[in-house]
Structure formats: C-alpha cells, structure tokens
Design brief:
By secondary structure, the chain is α/β, with parallel strands linked by helices. It has helices at residues 4-11, 18-30, 40-53, 67-74, 92-102, 115-121, 138-145, 175-188, and strands at 57-61, 81-86, 108-112, 126-131, 149-158, 193-198, 204-209. α7 links the parallel β4 (126-131) and β5.
C-alpha cells in the first residue's frame, strides 16, 4: 500500500515516459506479480546512476517485463550497451515491444535462460550491474559479478530489506529471506567494496567496487 511519503516522493520525481507507462500498464494486465516492477522512482534513480557514473556497459540480472532495463538504457550514451537477463521466456514479446516503444531496443541484448549460466558466458568489464532476480541466489550472482566489474563500478541490488523480514526477530527461515540476509551480511563484511543500503521501495544496496 502506498504511504503518504511514497506518494509525495513519487509526485516530486521526474515523470516517466509514455513508453514506461505502457510497460507498467501491460505488467499489471499480463502478470501475476506486478509489484515486482521497479516503478518510476526507482527507475529514475537507475537512469541517473547510469548517467552520473558514465557507464557504457551495463548488466541486468532479472529484467521481468523490461521496465528497469528501459530506464537503465535511457541513461546510456550513444554506443552504450545493456545485457539484460531473464529466465521467463513467456515475457519476451512484452519486453521487446516495450523496448521498441521506448526507442532503446538497439541498445539492449536480451538473454533468456538461467542467469548463472548466462553470467558464466558473458565477458566484462561492466560499469554497472543491477540485480533483481532469484533472491536465493544473490550471493552466487554477486561472486560471479565481481570479477566482471571494472574498478569503481557499481552493483545495485534490489529488494534487500525484503518487506522487513531480514531484521525481524526471530527472522523467518524461508529460503528467500535467508538468501537476502546472507547477501547483505556478505556485502557488509566484504573488503573489496563499499556500500550503502537505502530504504527506497523494498531496499536498494548500492555497492561500489574499490
């Protein structure tokens, strides 16, 4: 449920394009879990992070219906490229149509399949990576990503507060909550990076490789 602060933040952030509105509408119509969509505030943040970091090569793990990938691609300069990974092939048509409407289809390569298998094949270095896939595998994605990131690059991990379950006492013991909690602990103790965890949406961990 949207709070008053959520509404205020949304109303005072840059408006999304018509193409992004279309993707959001189609996500609500055609998927069972539209809440998984990044949304306008987080999407604008992703776009700005790409712009201010000067990223030209971006990787996304878990594109869902393509909203966040669109935002990332909108931040890329001419000649920039985004590799977007998604396991659900039933979403491919919607994803590609949304990218075409946004005019970013020429910047993005869609890889359908298990993210770990695709990651093993892709070569870096990447300037920025966005993680928003299977929470049970966040630690695996992270360790596979680090060697493919340039020094000073950014990893942005979504849903790291997991509806507050990660700081409940006692913490729920389901595999997704345990996966997110283990990831947060891993990053917090990792001397290879510096990070800040933000309470935006369901939590964003912004990680910089040092």
């Amino acid at each position: 449920m949207e709070t008053s602060s959520d509404r205020y933040i949304r109303e005072h952030s840059t408006l999304p394009s018509e193409a992004l509105d279309w993707i959001e509408k189609q996500t609500n119509i055609h998927t069972n879990h539209p809440r998984m969509l990044s949304g306008r505030v987080q999407g604008e943040l992703l776009k700005i992070l790409v712009e201010i970091s000067g990223a030209t090569r971006v990787l996304e793990i878990g594109t869902f219906t393509g909203y966040s990938a669109t935002c990332l691609a909108l931040g890329l300069p001419e000649g920039g490229r985004l590799d977007a990974l998604e396991i659900n092939d039933e979403l491919e048509e919607l994803i590609l149509e949304g990218w075409k409407k946004a005019g970013v289809d020429g910047k993005i390569s869609l890889h359908i399949g298990d993210a770990r298998e695709t990651l093993a094949r892709l070569e870096g270095p990447y300037d920025l990576a966005f993680m928003d896939a299977n929470k049970r595998q966040y630690c695996e994605y992270y360790e596979m990503l680090l060697p493919k990131m340039r020094k000073g690059g950014l990893i942005v991990a979504d849903d790291v507060l997991w509806d507050g379950k990660v700081f409940e006492d006692p913490m729920p013991q389901d595999s997704q909550t345990l996966g997110v909690a283990a990831f947060n602990d891993l990053v917090a103790a990792d001397p290879r990076v510096e990070q800040v965890l933000l309470p935006l949406r369901d939590g964003l961990n912004i990680i910089r490789i040092i």
